[in-house]
Amino acid sequence: MDKARDQFICLEQNMKLKFRRPTGGVVGLFLAALRDEKKIIGSECRNCGKVFVPPASYCERCSSDISALREVGPRGIVISWTLAPKGFDNSPADAPFRYIMVRPMGADTPLLHVSPDDERIRIGTVVRPVFREERTGSITDIKWFVPDDEDKRA
Amino acid sequence: MARRVGVIGTGQSKYEDHRNDVNTPELVREAALAAMSDAGITPGDVDAFVIAGASGFPEEISFSENWIGPAIGASGKPLVRVHAGTNVGANATISAFFQVASGAFDVVLAASYNQRTIEDFRFNSMDCCDPLWDLGFDYPQSTLAGLQARFYLSRHEGKITEEHGAMVAVKNRKNAVLNPCAHVRSEITVEDVMNSSEVASPIKVLDCSRVCDGAAAIVVADEMKARKLNPAPAWIAGVGACSESRSVPYVDMAYPESCVRAAQQAYQMAWVYEPASDLDTVEVHDTFSFQELIWCEALGICEPGTAGKFLELGGSMLDGELPVNPSGGVISTNPEGASSMVRQIEAAMQVMGKAGDHQVPGVRRALAHAWGGAIQYSVVTVFSSGL
Amino acid sequence: MRHITEISSKVEPVTFVEDELELSFRYWYGEHYGRFYAELRDNRRILGMRCEKCGSVLLPPRPYCGFCHAPLRTWVELSDKGAVDTFSIVHTPNAKELIETPYACAMIKLDGCDVPLYHLLGEVEFKDILTGMRVTAVWEEVRKGALRDIRYFRPSEQRSIRSD
Ligand SMILES: [Zn+2]
Ligand SMILES: [Zn+2]
């Protein structure tokens, strides 16, 4: 009987869930601007002056309502980075690649994104986004950020 | 000695079947800003925040408080999320109450919300039970309510009828017409309910609440701050919370022990000896019509089996001796994760005399009740106009 | 120094973000459930536990008493017959499981057990279902070690009521 019991070690359950989330107008504009205009949009708080990217309808520093949207970047500065040596399911880029925190010019907050595993990617490196041909209205419409001097080197 | 705590502001968002015009932080912000404005304060005046949503499942992300907090002014402040069944909003308020009563903070904001991101999501047995036991069957909340209603009807055969359930729905839908915040604001008749299609017998469509998206928020403060900010706060006179850590079948569905005990705790603290006469109005968590009757009995407002008679005689009507759900109750407005906090907000508003067209005259003490899980959780809060 | 320019263009906002998630869960049975389900599958036996402190006979089998929290050690075999405690005719489709609606479900108190078991009712007209009705388990031929190894409970025959 102990043997039979051993077959009941764990219960496995599989679940497939589909989500549909309203963006709210401001995030919706950010995503649409990536898709339709290849632009990065931030929100500026007219009370405390901070510029957030991605934008929000509220200021998370001083709680004011935000109504001013601004184009930021598209170039940005790398604030930090780490290496992703191995790929995984739905990996945002082919491994190896780097995750970067990039602060678009004119914004006060960094975005999390990816870059090639390029030794030139360091803290302080100026990078620019490479947009995909097919864009869907998602942060991944930017394929990745590359060093801004890439064209000159090539 | 714990400090006295008062409700100084309340806020509710607009309720709709789906709030597709805002994202979740924006939805919660709508209610939180309304509550702070009602209290005459700004986010800077709040010392700590509590967030509540009914479940992680319908929203994909597990740490929604991180997403929501910055939208309600919690950046740089203490922020916790509480987790329970649909009673979670009431637990958030109680958590805020303890934070102030203990002396840790002076002003705390509790917010709760519901925004479904899975199409047609229903809370199922698997969401609140023992997965190794109840996962064998995947039954929706309405099935549990059907079993509960039948159990209650058969225990009090001859005293409680299906029409009593219908009468609760009719009464509460009528009250909701007077409540500008309510989601469903149209009257129905007993025949409408009795002729509506069966969901899980004896529960019919019009015995059920209609789930909506929305948010609610409540600001509590210690006695000194409360008196300074609000000429007539609703003092939190008693709180009680009880769980029955058992799977569904262990619970006496017609007289849940968790509800009885939560009420006893709150009554003892609030000096309520005779609930029927010491309370001036109550808001109970009537997700399904019959539940109002069951809760009224477990709360000691009616003897077991007499809630039907009480209803027939008009005792629970808006102009009755003890109006039950003057706001229209959950059956008229069910933003699941926020519904239990809305009960508290409505009870507090009655005590503050701010309930408008559905104000019960001269309310000094009001009770808010909440249930959750598979009827294992109960929360009772008593608000009072005096200390 | 700021590179800020006013947004000049008008774009149509993206209103929804959609996502799909596939999750696999693993719950550990532990000794008590493991034995219960093995007996259900291999021997068509329903095992409960008796609390030596308060005398309750309990399902599901757990290491502690749901009523008085005393540790449980005594296994008892329960009957596969019992009585309907409460029931409902369900018209709402379930989220995951495809049981054809409408169907009848019930809380059934197995003989000798103090807590009811949730299960389905079969081989009965909905209008004939009553609380207190005697029912008997109908077992699946192929059993996997789950509560659904019992297909459903059907009304007990007249003679079995007498023999009960
Ligand atoms: Zn600001
Ligand atoms: Zn015991």
Structural description of this entry:
The complex is a heterotrimer of chains A (154), B (387) and C (164). Chain A has three helices and nine strands; from the N terminus they run αβαββββββββα. Chain A is mainly beta and 154 residues long. The model of chain A has no long low-confidence stretch (mean pLDDT 89). Chain A has one domain. Chain A is 15% helix and 39% strand. Chain B has 387 residues and is α/β, with parallel strands linked by helices. Chain B has a single domain (5-120, 210-384), classed as 3-Layer(aba) Sandwich (Peroxisomal Thiolase, Chain A, domain 1), CATH 3.40.47.10. Chain B has helices at 24-39, 64-68, 88-101, 125-128, 131-134, 141-155, 162-176, 190-195, 223-229, 257-270, 275-278, 289-298, 307-312, 329-332, 336-352; strands spanning 5-12, 48-53, 79-82, 107-114, 198-200, 203-204, 214-222, 234-243, 281-283, 365-372, 377-384. In chain B, strands 3-2-4-7-1-8-11-10-9 form a nine-stranded mixed beta sheet. Chain B is globular, with a radius of gyration of 19 Å. The mean pLDDT of chain B is 93. Chain C has 164 residues and is mainly β. Chain C has one domain. Helices cover 12% and strands 38% of the residues of chain C. Chain C contains two helices and ten strands. In chain C, strand 3 and strand 4 (57-58) form a beta hairpin. Mean pLDDT of chain C is 87; it is low at 1-6 and 160-164. Classes of the chains: A mainly beta (154), B alpha/beta (387), C mainly beta (164). Strand 1 (10-22) of chain A pairs antiparallel with strand 2 of chain C, so a sheet runs across the interface. The complex binds zinc ion (2 copies).
